[in-house]
Amino acid sequence: MKTLWAFLAINMATCACFSQNNKAGNRELQTCNLKPGDSYAGGIIVYLFPGECHGLVCAPRDQAKDMQWVEANNLCKALNIAGFSDWRLPTRAELDEMFNNLHKQKLGNFGSNNYWSSTEGGNNDAWSQYFDTGYQTFDTKNYPNYVRAVRTF
User: Fold this and answer.
1) In this structure, are residues 147 and 118 in contact, taking their beta carbons and an 8 Å threshold?
2) I need a surface site. Which of 24, 31, 67, 99 has the fewest CB within 10 A?
3) What are the structural domains of the chain?
4) Tens digits of residue pLDDT in 74-104
5) How far apart are CA 126 and CA 114, in angstroms?
6) Average pLDDT score over the chain
7) Does residue 23 surpass a pLDDT of 60?
């Protein structure tokens, strides 16, 4: 039992916090003190899963401007930022979360151009999002767009 409490004490310091439930004498997990826009896990928090200290971060800055989709995809997979090597292109939905939770709040230093997503629309097209308006569209994969990698933590 002491080992379990030592493990919990270490984890409490890194992310999760516990509070005593006075009625039942149970310990319950509460959300951590992280929020979108915070620097964490090698990037900037885009969102947290409800009630958890896990979510999505984007790289602290753009990886490229004017890069075609295949090269953008390969670049993200090869990234190593702050010791993390599990970066990738965001999905279409994750890209929209980046736009809403960060860019619209003036966080993350995004450009006002199209950013690639990993969501393909066929052999020749993939979704992108224009960060000036939030509009999502298909772009031909050989079209040059901005690149911002993401990873889950």
Assistant:
1) no
2) 24
3) 1-30 (no CATH), 39-152 (3.10.100.10)
4) 999 999 999 999 999 999 999 999 999 999 9
5) 12
6) 84
7) no
